[in-house]
Design goal:
Elements lengths: L9 H5 L9 E15 L5 E9 L2 E8 L3 H9 L4 E7 L2 E2 L2 E2 L2 E7 L10 H5 L7 H13 L4 H20 L13 H16 L8 H10 L4 H4 E2 L5 E2 L1 H5 L1 H16 L4 H13 L15 H25 L25
Antiparallel strand pairs: 1-2, 1-4, 2-3, 4-7, 5-6, 8-9
């Protein structure tokens, strides 16, 4: 019997070119997305995203493949041992999967296994949370600070671990915390340029703007939208949190209304999920910083995942383009 193939990471696989077509490989991966579809001939297939901490790739699994039933039974969030052959579709890695075995729950405790599968923020989560709480304490307005503190007394444990998205930006453990911290840092740096913006209200709006995502998303290894996330969305869920805790903290009606407006408008455009357009200085300020950090988060992640020989990333939907990842010569 031949020796088993060593496990390859997604980064290893993406470093290969079309000259590796047909080469066998083995990997240990998380089923991040599993969408059931039907071909024009009526046959079922899965459009799947599989990944580890180094990245992910998409592939198609047809109903007559032995892998189909394994993934159907395992579902999203399962950890699977994959064997397949390297293949490409339209220049992108899209392997042919030949065999899949789902790991039992008892196997997930193996040393280092989950650490190799779960992508996390590059900054330390404990340090980020400490900095986050310092931002809360820096809010000078007493009732506004109490509002923010009360929200995180309710959702803080979930917020610390949550991703900021399923796919688009900061879509990994601690991603929501990292995204919010980056926005708060940008807020502090930019406030001296825009004295029309109330500093406390802007910072409170930034700290609360995406709190609904702590309710919208669920899942340990694969992120999916919860029932409330699908039915209401994070903008409405965040608005509800701010209103509930603002009333509890006896925040004055004027500030509460403006804080709620920041959350309702931070997505920028209705087609992006905003309930309304930004219509206060603070709401415009927060919306622009949110858009900046979301896009730069996509850039930072693409650069982290790029191979040494890569010139461009895959197309990033949030940027409507591939990203030049080749480093600038000194």
């Amino acid at each position: 019997m031949p020796d088993p193939l060593p496990f390859s990471t997604v980064r290893d696989l993406k470093a290969l070119d079309t000259g590796a077509n047909g080469r066998p490989f083995a990997s240990l991966l998380v089923v991040k997305k599993l969408a059931a579809k039907t071909a024009s001939n009526g046959n079922p297939f899965f459009s799947a995203d599989l990944g580890d901490r180094t990245g992910s790739f998409g592939c198609t699994i047809f109903g007559d493949s032995p892998v189909f039933e394994t993934l159907k039974d395992a579902g999203e969030g399962a950890v699977v041992r994959i064997e397949g052959k390297i293949d490409f579709y339209q220049g992108r890695l899209s392997p042919r999967l030949m065999k899949a075995t789902a790991l039992a729950e008892s196997e997930l405790g193996a040393p280092g296994l989950l650490e190799n599968l779960i992508e996390t923020a590059p900054e330390d989560g404990v340090a980020l949370w400490t900095e986050f709480n310092a931002f809360i304490e820096s809010i000078q307005h007493v009732e506004l600070r109490a509002t923010v503190r009360s929200v995180f007394d309710e959702i803080g444990e979930t917020f610390k671990w949550s991703p900021a998205a399923v796919v688009m930006h900061h879509a990994y453990r601690h991603g929501l915390l990292e995204h919010t911290i980056h926005m708060a840092r940008a807020c502090k740096a930019l406030l001296p340029l825009y004295r029309e913006v109330d500093p406390d209200l802007a910072l409170a709006g930034i700290l609360l703007h995406d709190t609904g995502k702590a309710i919208e998303y669920e899942g340990t290894l694969a992120t999916r939208r919860s029932r409330r996330g699908i039915l209401q969305g994070h903008v409405v869920l965040g608005y509800q949190l701010a209103r509930k805790h603002g009333i509890k903290a006896k925040l004055d009606n004027e500030r509460l209304e403006r804080l709620e407006h920041i959350i309702l408008s931070h997505q920028g455009e209705p087609e992006w999920g905003a309930a309304v357009y930004a219509a206060t200085p603070e709401a415009v300020f927060v919306s622009m910083i949110d858009n900046l950090d979301a896009k730069m988060g996509m850039v930072q992640r693409a650069l982290r995942q790029a191979g040494d020989g890569d010139e461009f990333s895959e197309r990033l939907p949030g940027l409507s383009s591939s990203l030049l990842t080749k480093k600038l010569a000194p």
